[in-house]
Amino acid sequence: QERIQAQDMVALFEKLSGPQPGHRKAHARGLCATGTFAPVKLATGEPFAGAALLSSGGLPVLMRFSIGGGNPDADERMPGTRGLGLQIALPNGGLHNFTGNNFPVFAGKDVETFHGFLSTLLPDEQGKRDPQRTLDFADANPSVKDHMVWQKSAQTAASFANTEFYGLHTFYFDGADQPRVKFRWHLSPDLGVKTLTADQAQAKPAAFLAQSLAGQLEQGPVSFSLMASLGAPEDSDTDPSSQWPAHRPQVKLGTLTLQQSGGDQCTGKNFDPNVLSAGFSGSDDPVLKMRSPAYAISFGKRLSGQ
Ligand code: HEM
Asked: For residue 177, how far is its CA from the centre of ligand 1 (angstroms)?
């Protein structure tokens, strides 16, 4: 099997959505927001205790909520991928990014499988798409199946504030007075998960998510809990299509509270998920590793109007 590079992924995204100069090559449609991160207090020896990320309250946060795909005018009534790029600024000048999606399992065990899966969505020479190609690919590549099951059942997000976001990859934390922590993170909306039926979604305008979020912010606090699931030795740390058992212990790391939504502070940002604060590191997951070069290529292109 041919090795797929970051530029091949970006080229495929550009084929799927057509060239969109100046826009992100994935998650092109987005909504920026700001807020603060308040960490929980952890006792010495507990997992994550002593992390710089968790050592002081009220850290400034920049967020970008998004719709999957390269179309900057994507219809928000459509079910499917929603994303969140989250950047926490530490007092020492460090940054920690958490960039996740609303699905709990990735479409493929590695970059080649993900690329193959997305390629089945391209139209043929006659401009026709063939869903059977995708089904045949899934039969030959079972690691995309759990994601396809999710996609089939996914409903339209009612609001970004009512959406759960999953980091999918495995990360590590190395701190003093504790064994190495192996974890996967997710953000759980404190207002609860809410989705729309197809009829409810069709009754909305094509763009409603900015207003939904602004309305919720007027009514009261909008927040998320940052959670970490702790992995057992047998849980995969390199395969984002392999879900960990749901009963793994969970630690709450803190609360993310939104202050404002709208604005263009996210335009010049790159929410590269491998930018991590002291003590944290990414696993050898090849999909996680590919994300840094792919985001950098897209970042450079969009900043230069390509
Ligand atoms: C090989 C796998 C992947 C590739 C090649 C890829 C590629 C990209 C690219 C090129 C961008 C645009 C970056 C920019 O212009 O700033 C992007 C954005 C994004 N991706 Fe991925 N991605 C991958 C996997 C994932 C996964 C696993 C997740 C979720 C866990 C994810 C979530 C997001 C989100 C939320 C954004 C929007 C970030 C923002 O608002 O700036 N991606 N991705």
From this structure: 34
Q: Tens of pLDDT along the chain (306 residues)?
A: 679 999 999 999 999 999 999 999 999 999 999 999 999 999 999 999 999 999 998 999 999 999 999 999 999 999 999 999 999 999 999 999 999 999 999 999 999 999 999 999 999 989 999 999 999 999 999 999 999 999 999 999 999 999 999 999 999 999 998 999 999 999 999 999 999 999 999 999 999 999 999 999 999 999 999 999 999 999 999 999 999 999 999 999 999 999 999 999 999 999 999 999 999 999 999 999 999 999 999 999 999 999
Give bridge partners of residue 229 from the DSSP assignment: 184, 250
Which residues face 100 on adjacent strands?
Answer: 84
Which sequence spans correspond to the domains of the chain? 6-303
Residue 27: active-site member: yes
**Ligand 1 atom at shortest distance from the alpha carbon of 166:** 30
Taking the C-alpha atoms of residue 151 and residue 263, their distance in angstroms, rounded to an integer, is: 30
SS3 254: strand
Nearest CA to ligand 1 atom 34: 83
Distance 54 CA to ligand 1 centre (A): 25
What angle separates helix 286-303 from helix 111-119, to the nearest 10 degrees? 60
Nearest CA to ligand 1 atom 26: 100
166 is in an annotated binding site: no
| CATH code for the domain defined by 6-303 | 2.40.180.10
